[in-house]
Amino acid sequence: MGLGANLTVVLHQTRSPDNLGAVARVMANFGFSRLILSDPATYAFRGAERLAVKGESVLDRMAVARDLPEALTDCVYAVGTTSRTQLRGRVALTPEEAVRRLAQESARGRVALVLGGEQRGLSDEELAHCAEVLVIPTSEVQPSMNLAQAAAVLLYLCGREGTQEPVPEASEPGARMGTLGALSQRMQEVMLSAEFLNPQAPEHVLHELERTLMRARLSQREAELWLTAFKHLGRAVKRGASTP
């Protein structure tokens, strides 16, 4: 199906109707239609139609998710955007590299381009839900970009990538992030019970393991197998803990 059919644009904690409308217009410019609002800062988006010139159909089909994991549930890969150059444990991709990865991963299923809210962008915790991070290089005079401007730069590149030779579809569908999220939750429960994780701060090690799973490019079948294995391990650990 390729990038054009499989790209989801996720706007996290968006608060401006103008930005929403402008992003919808840019999506229409370059032939993308799947938009999800993740934990929007407001639901008063009535003014978005004013700037969504010929992008009204994008707004009509727009979905709303409770949080970022829910927005990414059926995606196999996500890239998060940030203007920060200092990233803990992450190496940022260039826009061109990120779009190329989106195109490659779209052969395995739906992929997501995640843009943060206007006030603070995406936090480290939110970026942890994304397999990769991208930074648009800008001048030191004004290092941050408006949300709609950043979307325009990236969707132009996505549209151009979509005109290249299509990537052959994978033999098996990629692991959906909803399944990987369930696996991560089960892993955390088991590893806490086994005293592998620090109960006061399990996130650091857990996020490293989650990124390892993302890099492994598991198929959906493989992810479900791992999930079943950890369910059985969890029961075994509980039985061992209850045995005197």
Explain what this protein looks like in three dimensions.
- The chain is α/β, with parallel strands linked by helices and 244 residues long.
- It folds into 2 domains: 2-161, Alpha/beta knot, CATH 3.40.1280.10; 177-242, Helicase, Ruva Protein, domain 3 (Orthogonal Bundle).
- Helix content is 47%, strand content 12%.
- It contains 11 helices and 6 strands.
- It has helices spanning 2-6, 17-29, 48-51, 56-61, 68-71, 95-105, 124-127, 147-161, 177-193, 203-215, 220-242, and strands spanning 7-12, 34-38, 63-65, 75-81, 110-115, 132-134.
- A 6-stranded parallel sheet has the order 3-2-1-5-4-6.
- Helix 6 (95-105) links the parallel strand 4 (75-81) and strand 5.
- The longest helix has 23 residues, at 220-242.
- The radius of gyration is 19 Å and the shape is globular.
- The N and C termini lie far apart (56 Å).
Computed CA radius of gyration, to the nearest angstrom = 19 Å
Segments where pLDDT lies below 50 for 5+ residues? none
Strand order of the largest sheet: 3-2-1-5-4-6
Structural class call reads alpha/beta
Percent of residues in helices comes to 40-55%
Number of strands: 6
Largest sheet: 6 strands, parallel
Number of domains: 2
Query: The CATH topology of the largest domain, please?
Result: Alpha/beta knot
Distance between the termini: 56 Å
Task: Provide the residue-averaged pLDDT.
Answer: 90
Shape: globular
- Total of DSSP H or I helical runs spanning 4+ residues: 11
Name of the CATH superfamily of the largest domain? SPOUT methyltransferase, trefoil knot domain
Which band does the percent of strand residues land in? Answer: 5-15%
CATH architectural grouping of the largest domain: 3-Layer(aba) Sandwich
The CATH class name of the largest domain reads Alpha Beta
